[in-house]
Amino acid sequence: MSYPLHMGGFESQVMHIYRELIELGIDVDWYNLSNTEIRQYDIIHLHSSVTEFLPIVQRAKELGKKIVVTPMIGSPRYSNKSYQFKLLASRFPGLFYVMKRFNQIFSMVDCFITLTNFEKNRLRTIFKIDKEISIIPNGIDDSFFCQDDTFIKLPFTNYIIVVGRIESDKNQLPLIEIANELQLNLLIVGEPGIGQQDYYQRCKNIAGNNVVFWGKETNPNIMRQLYKEAYLTAIPSVTEMLPLVIFESLSQHTPVLCTTHCGIYPEQVPGLFYTKPIKEKILENIKGIWNSCSSVDIGRKGIYSWNNIAKQHITVYQKLVGE
């Protein structure tokens, strides 16, 4: 698998699973168009359902290999009705070619792995998948289970933290406006997304002294402390699958306000609150959490290490090959 220039949540997820599978003794490798010989492997696992995978799937099927797909179609930004329309229209020549290839790929898959129940239901209802579908969520770095404090100099206390690339889909702008209006401390951790310099500059231009741009943070121990010291983690995105940020924050007993345009919505998780990704609703929910979060019981149930996530994948693989 190749990666874009910026490592996002999806790429991080796949990389963590890959590394943990190796640690657990599984012979695993990245697919390389020019070097990989599919016949050497028992299982082909595709992370995403991009149509360019079709020749790989066809070749694997010809060789009798087991095929696993993590389709990554679990964002509620696009409604089921939208998918249904495109799928129906793809039956006509020249229309929604991508959906037609989706169906071709899915028809050859032996097992699906989804991040959320929402994504699983979408496969069942829209694509009429009757094959095995396992739900395996995202994990978090082992350091988040550590109880030791890491000393860092913070720009302020009692702050809201937002983590992720700074770009229009992540929707940080209304959060900055709210922070200015209510004089809330806001810590933004992340770097500008590719082609998002204009959006980043807009965010910078309106930010008051109560808004700090921390930049990209790669040290998990520092990230753990940043979450721990915050009173709220906000995910105001226009679209999300299953952000790692949710579990990282909850592991530090910091509540999360997450967009309803996320694949985990509307599952009820202690410490997880939802908001529509529009300024008025974000503002309303921040005020509500401010008054109630001190009484929220935030546990760690359903929060897994990447090692545990890899073991869940191995269980799926073993079942496929009859071990």
From TrEMBL:
Taxonomic source organism: Bacteroides stercorirosoris
Keywords in alphabetical order: Transferase
Annotated Gene3D superfamilies: Glycogen Phosphorylase B
The keyword Transferase appears for this protein: yes
GO terms for MF: glycosyltransferase activity
Residues annotated as domain Glycosyltransferase subfamily 4-like N-terminal: 39-143
Descriptive protein name: Glycosyltransferase involved in cell wall bisynthesis
Transmembrane segments: none
Domain of life of the native organism: Bacteria
Lineage: Bacteria, Pseudomonadati, Bacteroidota, Bacteroidia, Bacteroidales
Pfam families: Glyco_transf_4 (PF13439), Glycos_transf_1 (PF00534)
